[in-house]
Amino acid sequence: MATKLWEKETTKTPVWLEEFTVGNDNILDLELAEFDVIGSIAHTAMLAETGFITKEEFASLKKELNLILKKIKAKDFVIENGVEDIHSQIELELTKKLGETGKKIHTARSRNDQVLLDIKLYSKHKIQETVLKTETLFNTLSNKHKQILMPGYTHFQAAMPSSFGLWFGSYAESLCDDMEMLYGAYNVVNRNPLGSGAGYGSSLPINRNYTTEALGFESMNYNVVYAQMTRGKSEKVVCMAIACIAATLSKLAMDVCLYNSQNFGFVTFPSHLTTGSSIMPHKKNPDVFELIRAKCNRLQALPNELTLLINNLPSGYHRDMQLTKDILFPAFKELHNCLFACVEMLKEIQITKNILQDKKYELLFSVEAVNKLVENGLPFREAYKLISEKIDANTFQFDGDINHTHEGSIGNLMNGEIKKRFEILAVKFKQNYRG
What we know:
Blueprint: H1 15-22, H2 25-28, H3 33-49, H4 55-73, H5 86-98, H6 100-103, H7 111-141, E1 149-154, E2 157-163, H8 164-189, E3 191-192, H9 208-214, E4 219-220, H10 224-260, E5 267-268, H11 287-299, H12 302-310, H13 324-347, E6 350-351, H14 366-375, H15 380-392, H16 415-432
């Protein structure tokens, strides 16, 4: 038996061509192994339901597929040397055990719709994992040090009073928008492509509704040509969601690196979470956040990388699409590592108190002084001019209380509402996910 599903018995592929075209598939495809088996079980169940295989054949196929699935979960499954991909390996094992029955698994199915299906099932699973890790970070940020004041900056200039609660809460709410993007990506991949074959369907009267329901998809990709067109597009949409979370993490990491520097001194970390210098004994570098920043900046480039890979292709399958796995699979791993590292660091962040008592931050209160005059009846422009003149004359002083009460301000963080929004999105995932 040929170890390539497409290879004819009369042809022999040169070694160099095989190595070039297979690429990393025999490594990356192990990420898809579990989902390929799950898809194969649903497909063979449909074949039995529509009469293309007998119930006895289905029973034997299902038994062997479950044994393969057990090996995969035990990390005892490999793609053998000379076997092109996960689809070939599974069919090869079934054929070794079941002979002609094993060969029937490919009825009314192409490698194209197999890969499409596997990547969508994989993406659904990984998005769910991302939701859980994002939720952990969200909970770490919520209600953290909300009463402690800190300077707020614009243009790298001290601007107005802020608080650590306001700062941390801003990133918590940013994750809400990121969850919206994740949910949108999840909806895009929650469509069954199986049955589209090589992109033009099949003359066999298969039942696509059956596999859609069996695999827990919300619906199918109805048009078989479009089902094939989602290859690359689905990965791009998912990477756009990944890039949104990465943008939040990158900005947070930049803030932390800045605020950890001696010139700011707003936050510090225990020595065991920082690194030193080979020649400067005083250094405590925030390497973890520097790497989070760098890794997440790279993740933000992925949608553009996928655009360049697929945007000049006509409809139908092209081998270019094989390379989407090289982009998508490492992206999830990198993002999950960054989310984990960020949570672990923030658990031990040390906050500097009484920062605003430093004389250099006195001008932060200029707007407070203007607003006090406005509250006493002076027009804003007159109040602004009066305080500006005091600043120019170096006579400005402010010793009043800060009283921010409106929604989303220092005194009214709206963390409960932000948390409610996040939880609503998290529940949507839990309601729609069927494994």
